[in-house]
Structures are given as C-alpha cells and as structure tokens.
Amino acid sequence: MGGSSFIIPAKAKNPELAWLLYEFLCFKEPGYSAVYGPSDIYPGGLTTSVPSYTPALRADKPLIKPVAALGGQDLWKVAVDAAATIPAAAPIPAWWNKSVDYLGDNLQRLMEGKMSPDDVIDDSTKKIQRNLVDRA
After folding, report:
1. Using 50, 70 and 90 to split pLDDT, how confident is the model at 5?
2. What CA–CA distance (Å, rounded) separates 82 from 79?
3. Are 123 and 115 in contact (CB under 8 A)?
C-alpha cells in the first residue's frame, strides 16, 4: 500500500475517482482499517504487511489480531516498532525476494507440523545469510 504497486493510467477514464479511492484506502482510518483489519477474507487482519502511512502505525490501535499459530504474540507491535526503524526510501536488498525459498518453505513446514518456530527461525536465518546475504 505504499504506492509502488498502484498506478493510475494516463488515459484512465476517471483518474480523479481512482485517486479518491486510493486516498481513502491509504490515508483515511476507515479505509486502511478495512484493508488491514479483520475481514471475511482475513479474520485476524492482513498480517503480511503494514500500512506505509505513519499515523496508521499506532501500537495502541492494532489493525491485526495476535496470530494463534505463532504463539499468540502481538505481531502488530513488532511490525510497528520495526517499521519505525526503517528509514524513508530505504532500498530493498537484492536478495530479499529470494529469501522466500528458505523462509517461505520453512513456514510451510511449520504449518504442516514438521518444524518448530525456533527451528524455522534458526534454519531460515542460517540459509538466508549463507546463500543470499553473504553472496550479494
């Protein structure tokens, strides 16, 4: 929702309406709450990203519920605290998208009961560091 995946084509029929929708979803509390908060599709809220709009990142107003499968921890607070440490326009490392081969696969093993959370963190960290970060 940071804008890099949203465009309004130059020849859009109603660019003003497209902007109003985008503005609502990203910068208005009812909009970003609808995108990230609990819904029929994501009963606990969208837990894979957080809004890029700083006022939406309030630790005292979580948009997601704790995730039972991850020990019920408050991921919202973790994400909000982490987001506050990332400088504006920080580049994404070249290896980032490739990390899914390790972390994503291990998370699937976690959901299947084949790995523990500690094993996922330990194994994924070692493989990402060895195979991606140290090679970048």
Report:
1. low
2. 5
3. yes
